[in-house]
């Protein structure tokens, strides 16, 4: 177990160095970039190791999986993000499990979250934007962004913080750059349109996060770069 903990700790150090270098190339401050460790299928012991190595933000993709892990990690002072698609029938459960929803993609889902949020709750959310027209992945279409954002402004319990995207799988990592640039442009245009600062851009994963940082990412979602290869599916 000690060897594995050292490996995760070393990974976190290496990721930090790469964040610093990418931020330097873009004239940015590395402390303005949040590492969200994507812990889908990762055992709780390895998540505890990542926390011990300094990770404070974790992203889960499935409500049911995190529901099983959450009681075992209740002592960690961490921020828990939902980064995977959220079905409307699981919105109420997600509200009790996550601090932030980074994959909001429709007004009906937003309305469900708004109705379920308790008095005084302000749930930070990101709108997931689908930039790959060739797939049927989750996400709001770019042309639907203004309508969804304006709807969110009428929901007092939801706090729109920015945008998120998952670019298509490309052969060369440099080919991901136009998607990251496009998300930044969409964010900037939307912020101007609705007259609201949108500070967060969640984009970039283990393979391409340095390019995402160069293009303005404020949150990067890393799985294998932190935890190593995921356990094989059973």
Q: What does it look like?
A:
With 234 residues, this protein is of the alpha/beta class. Residues 1-5 have low confidence and may be disordered. The longest helix is centred in the N-terminal third of the chain and has 24 residues, at 2-25. The protein contains nine helices and eight strands. It has a single domain (36-201), classed as TIM Barrel, CATH 3.20.20. The protein has an eight-stranded parallel sheet with strand order 7-6-5-4-3-2-1-8. Strand 6, helix 7 (177-194) and strand 7 (200-202) form a beta-alpha-beta unit.
Structural class: alpha/beta
Q: What is the fourth-level CATH superfamily?
A: Alanine racemase
Q: How would you state the average pLDDT, rounded? A: 93
Task: Name the helix and strand elements from N-terminus to C-terminus, one letter apiece.
Answer: HEHEHEHEHEHEHEHEH
CATH topology: TIM Barrel
Number of strands: 8
Strands of the biggest beta sheet: in what spatial order? 7-6-5-4-3-2-1-8
- What's the tally of helices? 9
Q: Give the low-pLDDT segments.
A: 1-5
State the assembly state of the protein chains.
Answer: single chain
> What share of residues are in beta strands?
15-25%
What is the name of the CATH architecture? Answer: Alpha-Beta Barrel
């Amino acid at each position: 177990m000690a060897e594995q903990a050292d490996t995760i700790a070393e990974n976190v150090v290496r990721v930090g160095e790469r964040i610093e270098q990418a931020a330097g190339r873009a004239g940015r401050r590395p402390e303005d970039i949040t590492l969200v460790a994507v812990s889908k299928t990762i055992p709780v012991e390895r998540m505890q190791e990542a926390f011990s190595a300094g990770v404070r933000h974790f992203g889960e993709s499935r409500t049911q999986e995190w529901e099983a892990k959450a009681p075992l990690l209740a002592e960690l002072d961490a921020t828990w993000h939902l980064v995977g698609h959220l079905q409307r029938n699981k919105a109420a459960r997600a509200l009790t499990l996550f601090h932030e929803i980074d994959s909001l993609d429709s007004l009906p889902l937003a309305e469900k979250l708004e109705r379920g949020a308790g008095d005084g709750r302000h749930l930070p959310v990101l709108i997931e934007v689908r930039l790959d027209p060739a797939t049927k992945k989750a996400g709001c279409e770019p042309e639907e962004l203004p309508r969804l954002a304006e709807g969110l402004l009428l929901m007092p319990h939801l706090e729109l913080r920015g945008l998120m995207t998952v670019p298509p799988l490309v052969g060369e990592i440099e080919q991901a750059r136009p998607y990251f640039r496009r998300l930044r442009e969409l964010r900037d245009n939307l912020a101007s349109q609705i007259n609201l600062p949108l500070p967060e851009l969640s984009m970039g994963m283990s393979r391409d996060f340095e390019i995402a940082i160069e293009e303005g990412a404020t949150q990067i979602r890393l799985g294998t770069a932190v935890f190593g290869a995921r356990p094989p599916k059973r």
